[in-house]
Amino acid sequence: MPKPAATNPLVSETQFDDHTVIVPPNRLRSVISRSGDSDGVTMDPVKRAETALKQIKKEFRGWMNAECDALEAARAAIRENGIGEDSAERLLNAAHDVLGHADTFGYPLAGKIADSLCKLISSTADVSALPMPLVDAHVDAVRAVVREGVHDADNRTGGEILRRLSKLIASHLDKVRESRLAALPEVDSPDL
What we know:
Blueprint: E1 3-4, E2 12-15, E3 20-23, E4 33-34, E5 41-42, H1 45-56, H2 60-81, H3 85-105, H4 108-123, H5 132-147, H6 156-183
Antiparallel strand pairs: 1-2, 2-3, 4-5
């Protein structure tokens, strides 16, 4: 036979002979907005989140500029000290941060360009062979997109820049593959 036990007024606790059932308080009420619905309660967290985003939207450009500054600093460090594993990783991390924040901050095109830079860095096995003119083109393109306030991923000029960068990366990677293949020793195939 159950026996009610009240140690905490917010917790419902019922004791049985061989076990106790504890029901914690329902804290979801704090995220529920009241309205005139038939049950008197409407959950609208999406609307609340959109309102919060609108309130901080003014700060997005500043935050995106900070991401661009970090990308620029990583490139400047490479120019000053040369490229090594650490500086390439710092550049990759900065590009990845731009990629990760760009959509949220309203700069999807900058994110696509940063993604292209991430692929370039990640696909270059020997970081000393990283083509700095191509890195420069990516960093400058991200900077330009943010500076000009390009918020449309389908921006014609920005899209063309991204296509050209992608073409240059493909060409670079083809040359890298060709040089790797040329460096392989010739092996005679067995007679069939």
